[in-house]
Amino acid sequence: MESKFAHIIVFFLLATSFETLLARKECDGPEVIELLKEFECNGKQRWPELIGVPAQYAKGIIEKENTLIADVQIILNGSPVTADFSCNRVRIAVNILDYAVSMPVVG
């Protein structure tokens, strides 16, 4: 029992000593800064207030608040999606009752 506890403590000490992977602007260099600038989109980009609302209502709000959004997709939470980025797309992840379960964001 003591050996397992010691292993757990060592694991947590090692895990906390590693630096987390965060997107940084200044210390990553000019290449990363240019890449981040490439993906700057216009208009509202996040809708935290739409978590828990019906999907069709959320879609209407998104289209009203950012007219640059041309593609609002309603997907079942956990469904596979492409990894590409698009400034004119928002995905709304919904549960089986068709309510938004996470924050819709541009991408």
From TrEMBL:
- What name goes with this protein? PIN-I protein
Q: Which PANTHER family match?
A: PROTEIN, PUTATIVE, EXPRESSED-RELATED (PTHR33091), SUBTILISIN INHIBITOR 1 (PTHR33091:SF29)
Write out the similarity annotation.
Answer: Belongs to the protease inhibitor I13 (potato type I serine protease inhibitor) family.
Superkingdom of the source species: Eukaryota
Q: Does the keyword Hydrolase apply?
A: no
UniProt record, GO biological process: response to wounding
Gene that this sequence comes from: PPI3A4
Query: Which InterPro entries did the record assign?
Result: Prot_inh_pot1, Prot_inh_pot1_sf
Assigned keywords, A-Z: Protease inhibitor, Serine protease inhibitor, Signal
Q: Where is the signal peptide?
A: 1-23
Q: Which GO terms describe its molecular function?
A: serine-type endopeptidase inhibitor activity
